[in-house]
């Protein structure tokens, strides 16, 4: 649920008796403007507050009169006045300091009643029922914008006369970049600061590829998987037939759909709700990922046809890397090509690297804004990302997923002069050479045996020289990018292995870490070889920690869809 914010400046509530002293006998306040809460209004009248250290003038009186007098101030006001009030709910005046209130007709020596107001949400019982909260319960809110923060210990006030509104004082509003009318998201914050909202939803996550469609149905915010599958798509089989099979396996309603989109270029810094404008922008950059984006979009359109009234969300592989500086993403080619055609490094596997960063923050107990990790997504596709202050700072993949480290069937970085040279020598077209670099190179191309590391390890143990050569080349290229990341980050708190090979091949992890001892990286052999699942595999004496974190891109997608649609 999203709630409009009301920024509350310092103000005073008065009893009729105190109003009479300050403004004259049987005084009636003059309304200046109505407030959002029914029956409440700001008065034309103002008073002066005087404390032990200082004075604040022109403090607004709020009406109507109450059964108690109360002064609500910010922390900055407290410093000016020289008082130290507690954080209190309105009307709770226990152990509160007093202050002198000066009006045009008299002075009131208030013995108690100065509070720092509890940040709070006014809720109608219907709003409270939708959230699943009760009066006086504490929740949290997430703000948006340049200074996005999470504010915990937000008090719920539930009453039939209340209108939905989040109240916050000026100090906190300024720190969070909030203005009147801005929206905040009501969330739950667990021990690891993972965001969850309250409203239950069923989120379908779809990853539509050329040869298969993967899907998972999540119950959110509990993050429980209700159904999942990976449907292979035969050449003669239409996408409509595949989606018919998916929806046949998904029982019950669907509240939102999350779609994986491989390339968003620099048009999308975060996941977005899919609109006609967003779809047009994705179309406009699909030439950057011709093997992926068109089929991703075909899946979106098929889902929209079946669920036109349900919100759909695009989650981009590239968005996580939009924090890279120009020194990381620019190529040393004529700058006009970047200006005219946006030719630059974009990076991929963003959802995987995002998940790894979130888990590493929790496992290492290092705040994200101080976290430096090297995230190694090693599967059939491979990317190494240098994460500084919890954000992508550099990554190995480039304009397309072909660049960077040697992969299962992809070459990774090569001398670009090879392409016209092979065209001339082999009589191939550019498209044919690119197909070779994408599908017939890498581990498969060097070994001549397989792109599967398990198969190559078996062959290498039996003396197969090219299988061993492919593995040596694979490790050498990973060393190159890990070393680059160490230099770009000026050291690291941890190296993280994720994805199929990174999670499951102890032998490859061992080989990759050998030679990195100079940087303070030392494995614990027993944890590396005998442990399972998410764990620390570095020696207890290793300055740089080494982690295995099984990735969960689908969960990241479900969370994004949930946060954008509740």
TrEMBL record:
GO CC annotations, alphabetized: cytoplasm
Metabolic or biological pathway: Metabolic intermediate biosynthesis; acetyl-CoA biosynthesis; acetyl-CoA from acetate: step 1/2
Cofactor note text: Mg(2+). Can also accept Mn(2+).
EC number: 2.7.2.1
Annotated catalysed reactions: acetate + ATP = acetyl phosphate + ADP
Entries under HAMAP family matching the protein: Acetate_kinase
Protein name per its UniProtKB record: Acetate kinase
Originating organism: Tumebacillus flagellatus
Organismal lineage: Bacteria, Bacillati, Bacillota, Bacilli, Bacillales
């Amino acid at each position: 649920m999203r709630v409009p914010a009301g920024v509350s400046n310092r103000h005073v509530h008065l009893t009729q008796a105190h109003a009479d002293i300050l403004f004259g006998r049987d005084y009636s306040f003059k309304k200046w403007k109505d407030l959002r809460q029914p029956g409440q209004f700001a008065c034309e009248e103002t008073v002066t507050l005087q404390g032990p250290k200082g004075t604040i003038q022109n403090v607004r009186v709020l009406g109507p009169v109450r059964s108690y007098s109360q002064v609500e101030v910010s922390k900055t006001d407290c410093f000016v006045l020289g008082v130290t009030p507690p954080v209190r709910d309105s009307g709770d005046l226990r152990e509160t300091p007093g202050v002198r209130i000066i009006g045009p007709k008299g002075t009131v020596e208030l013995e108690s009643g100065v509070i720092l107001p509890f940040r709070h949400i006014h809720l109608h019982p219907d709003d409270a029922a939708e959230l699943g909260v009760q009066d006086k319960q504490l929740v949290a809110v997430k703000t948006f914008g340049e200074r996005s923060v999470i504010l915990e210990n937000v008090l719920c006030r539930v009453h039939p006369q209340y209108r939905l509104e989040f109240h916050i004082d000026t100090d906190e509003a300024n720190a969070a970049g909030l203005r009147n009318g801005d929206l905040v998201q009501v969330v739950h914050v667990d021990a690891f600061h993972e965001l969850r909202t309250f409203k239950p939803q069923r989120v379908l996550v779809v990853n539509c590829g050329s040869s298969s469609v993967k899907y998972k149905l999540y119950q959110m915010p509990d993050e429980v998987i209700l159904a999942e599958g990976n449907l292979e798509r035969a050449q003669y089989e239409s996408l409509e037939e595949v989606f018919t099979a998916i929806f046949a396996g998904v029982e019950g309603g669907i509240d939102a759909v999350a779609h994986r989109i491989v390339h968003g270029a620099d048009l999308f810094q975060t996941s977005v709700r899919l609109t006609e404008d967003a779809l047009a922008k994705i179309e406009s950059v699909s030439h950057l990922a011709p093997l992926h984006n068109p089929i991703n979009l075909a899946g979106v359109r098929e889902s929209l046809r079946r669920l036109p009234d349900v919100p759909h969300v695009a989650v981009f592989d590239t968005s996580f890397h939009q924090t890279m500086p120009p020194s990381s993403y620019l190529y040393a080619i004529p700058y006009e090509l970047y200006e005219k055609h946006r030719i630059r490094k974009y990076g991929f596997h963003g959802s995987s690297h995002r998940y790894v960063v979130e888990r590493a923050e929790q496992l290492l107990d290092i705040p994200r804004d101080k976290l430096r990790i090297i995230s190694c997504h090693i599967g059939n596709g491979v990317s190494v990302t240098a994460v500084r202050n919890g954000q992508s700072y550099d990554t190995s993949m480039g304009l397309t997923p072909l660049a960077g480290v040697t992969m299962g069937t992809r070459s990774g970085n090569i001398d670009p002069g090879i392409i016209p040279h092979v065209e001339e020598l082999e009589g191939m077209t550019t498209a044919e050479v690119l197909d070779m670099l994408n599908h017939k190179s890498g581990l498969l191309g060097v070994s001549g045996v397989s792109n599967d590391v398990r198969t190559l390890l078996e062959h290498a143990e039996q003396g197969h020289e090219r299988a061993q050569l492919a593995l040596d080349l694979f490790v050498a290229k990973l060393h190159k990018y890990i070393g680059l990341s160490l230099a770009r980050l000026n050291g690291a708190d941890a190296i993280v292995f994720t994805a199929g090979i990174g999670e499951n091949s102890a032998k490859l992890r061992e080989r990759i870490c050998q030679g990195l001892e100079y940087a303070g990286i030392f494995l614990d052999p027993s944890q590396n070889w005998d442990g399972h699942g998410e764990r620390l595999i570095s020696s207890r004496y290793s300055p740089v920690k080494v982690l295995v974190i099984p990735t969960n891109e689908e969960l990241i997608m479900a969370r994004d869809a949930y946060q954008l649609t509740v």
